[in-house]
Amino acid sequence: MEEVQREDGLPTISAFRTHTPDQRVQARIEISGPGLIRSPEGGIDVMGNGHAIAYTGAIRKETIDADSLDQAFSRLREVLG
After folding, report:
1. Rounded distance, CA 80 to CA 31, Å?
2. Which residues, at least 6 apart from 42, have a Cβ–Cβ distance to it below 8 Å?
3. What are the DSSP E strand ranges found in the chain?
4. pLDDT, tens digit, 9 for 90 and up, residues 63-76
5. How far apart are CA 52 and CA 18, in angstroms?
6. Tens digit of each residue's pLDDT (9 = 90 or more) over 45-56
7. How far apart are CA 77 and CA 29, in angstroms?
8. How far apart are CA 75 and CA 8, in angstroms?
9. CA separation (Å) from 66 to 8, 70, 79, 81?
10. Please, which pLDDT band fits residue 4 given cuts at 50, 70 and 90?
11. Rounded to a whole number, what is the distance in angstroms from the first to the last CA of the chain?
12. Quick check: 43 pLDDT over 90?
C-alpha cells in the first residue's frame, strides 16, 4: 500500500463526466472477517491522489475514520473481528 501511495498519482480523466484523482481508486485491498455465510467485509482504497480510505461493507461502503494507513488497518481489524 505504501508503495502505491508513493507512486505518481492518477491523472484527471473525462468520459461522461470529469473524474479527479481524489475520486479514482488506484489500488484496493478487500478483506473478509470470520464466518462462511455473510461474513463482515471491508477494505482500504488508495485513491489517485495517494490518500488511503478504509471502509466496511461490500456494496454499501461506510467509511472508517483514520488519520494514517496504520490506523486504518487497526480500525478495520477491530470492525471485522
Report:
1. 8
2. 30, 31, 33, 54, 55, 56, 57, 64, 76, 79, 80
3. 13-14, 18-19, 25-32, 41-47, 52-56, 62-64
4. 998 888 888 889 88
5. 21
6. 988 888 889 999
7. 13
8. 27
9. 22, 8, 13, 17
10. low
11. 21
12. yes
